[in-house]
Design brief:
Blueprint: H1 3-36, E1 40-41, H2 42-45, E2 46-48, E3 54-63, H3 73-85, E4 100-109, E5 118-125, E6 136-143, E7 149-156, E8 162-166, E9 169-173, E10 178-187, E11 200-205, H4 210-224, E12 229-233, E13 236-240, H5 249-257, E14 260-261, E15 268-272, E16 277-280, E17 285-293, E18 296-307, E19 320-331, E20 335-341, H6 344-353, H7 358-371, E21 374-375, E22 377-380
Parallel strand pairs: 15-22
Antiparallel strand pairs: 1-14, 2-11, 3-4, 3-6, 4-5, 5-10, 6-7, 7-10, 8-9, 11-13, 12-13, 15-16, 17-20, 17-21, 18-19
């Protein structure tokens, strides 16, 4: 064997080793991805006590409209009150204006708001205004459920649409009696809340479940290397703040909300009869059962035939339209087919083998639930 041949054989062996190593690494990465693909962060399935949004609402005026405002007495009275506060006394009946609209202003106060932060304000007409296009919202206090003012809103209203035309022909895009004032509300005071005031923080699950709550508790204790977390009920987990994090609560919450937890999803089948949509979870199981599925087709045809009078017929003779109806009934022979499945894939393949439509599938699933063969919760929306 020559020297060149030996080099070629050695190069071929090295390439094979590289290829084998590559596929081994790919398999490890792929399997590791499969093991965590169902895991979710705690911040996606739960929230901390007090870390929540709050709703604000207020009543205001939108001015500068092009003759598309309100004509009601409430708007005129509001205009008169506003002018009176500015030193101008005007009676409501003396105001002839359709360039103003009464609106309700709403906003969402984010968690831990600070004075000076800006948020969006939503504006919606409450009178008979035709459009808020081109209007500007006057200074409006936004109050919480406790009656305190937490923000002030003011600015031009953006409706994201338009209306135009004339002489009975108009063109309209989007809804014209509601809009948004982007970054138009300024927060004036924050909420009286202290995170972890009693040395404890509660974690609330978005979907209460004993298994998921217990898994969150186990994952937190495993990360902190001590029994700091405990399960209260299916919807809440309480966390005692460790001594090392007593002055670093933000770092503790950052650590906790980034932990991966596998939530337990109940076996559920969701059916929307209006749209024919069927959603089957991966925990759904079907006991061995035989299903007979047959189709019944009824076809109705109607043909119209014209009967005309013969030549030289009497004047009273008329042309008559005679409908002829033909009804045909076809019934496909039904055959029993065994359906069982330990996994979602087996269930889907078995039901697809029946060749059913979504609405037929809904009827089959309801019958399976009634017979007790469907081991899952059947929810119809």
């Amino acid at each position: 064997m020559t020297h060149n041949s030996r080099l070629k054989i050695e190069d071929l062996k090295i390439k094979k080793r590289l290829v084998s190593t590559f596929f081994l690494l790919f398999f490890i990465l792929y399997t590791s991805h499969l093991t965590i693909c169902h895991a979710e962060r705690i911040k996606d399935i739960a929230s901390f006590e007090g870390v929540r949004d709050n709703q604000l609402v207020g009543y205001g005026l939108v001015v500068g409209l092009n003759n598309t405002g309100d004509t009601g007495l409430a708007t005129l009275q509001t205009i008169a009150n506003m002018l009176q506060r500015m030193g101008l006394v005007v009676k409501p009946r003396d105001i002839m204006a359709k360039n103003t609209a009464s609106v309700m202003v709403t906003a969402t106060l984010p968690p831990f708001p600070k004075p000076g932060m800006k948020i969006d304000a939503l504006v919606s007409a409450i009178g008979d205004a035709k459009s808020l296009q081109g209007g500007a919202l006057l200074l409006t206090p936004l109050k919480g459920p406790d009656g305190k003012v937490y923000a002030l809103a003011q600015g031009p209203v953006s409706i994201g649409g338009f209306i135009g035309g004339g002489a009975g022909t108009t063109v309209q895009k989007n809804h014209l009696t509601s809009g948004k004032v982007p970054q138009g509300a300024i927060i004036e005071q924050d909420l009286p809340f202290t995170l972890g005031e009693n040395g404890e923080i509660k974690i609330f699950l978005h979907r209460p479940d004993f298994t998921t709550a217990t898994e969150i508790t186990r994952k937190i204790n495993e990360t902190l290397n001590s029994e700091y977390a405990s399960t209260i009920d299916p919807s809440a987990v309480i966390l005692r703040i460790p001594t090392d994090y007593f002055d670093k609560k933000a770092e503790l919450l950052t650590l906790i909300e980034g932990l991966d937890v596998t939530p337990d999803i109940p076996a559920r089948v969701v059916i929307n009869e209006r749209t024919g949509t069927v959603i089957i979870g991966d925990k759904v199981r079907i006991s061995p059962v035989a299903i007979a599925h047959g189709n019944l087709t009824i076809e109705i045809r109607t043909e119209f035939r014209v009967s005309q009078p013969p030549p030289f017929a009497p004047e009273k003779a008329e042309t008559v339209v005679v409908p002829q109806v033909d009804v045909t009934v076809k019934e496909q022979k039904a055959s029993l087919m065994e359906v069982t499945g330990a996994t979602l894939g087996e269930i889907v393949r078995a039901l697809n083998a029946l060749g059913v439509t979504p609405r037929d599938l809904i009827a089959i699933l309801q019958a399976l639930k009634a017979s007790g063969a469907l081991r899952a919760e059947l929810e119809i929306i």
